[in-house]
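User: Run a structure prediction on this.
Assistant: Running it now.
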Amino acid sequence: MREITIDVTSCGTCCQIGSTPACILMYADALVLLSPSWGAQQKLINVCAESVSRVDMMFNATKSTVMIFPPHRIARRALGTFPIFSLSGVALSVVDNCKYLCHIIYSVNDDNHDITRQINRPLLSG
């Protein structure tokens, strides 16, 4: 996984979280790519695909998804729809939410649904 991280962080495409550049989040085999635009996202996907192929691994495109977070100000939206993202020639589905490390992330920049889900889940006995 180190090779993937190095390749992605070296490609020069990333988002800003506050003043910190960020383009990849990784825990074990769970990977998140962050980019500021459609073209940048497709570039990161391509870099990852090339990187894993060099170490004889591959991504499962059927388990891979794309989530688009709209800008806070509607006037900054460039497109209402985006071109299709692909991973090694396979189209990726665009989702409004996904589960990452037991948390559900929503594209509406609001985690109230996941907080409510966590509060209402049964406690483990034990």
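The mean pLDDT is 82.
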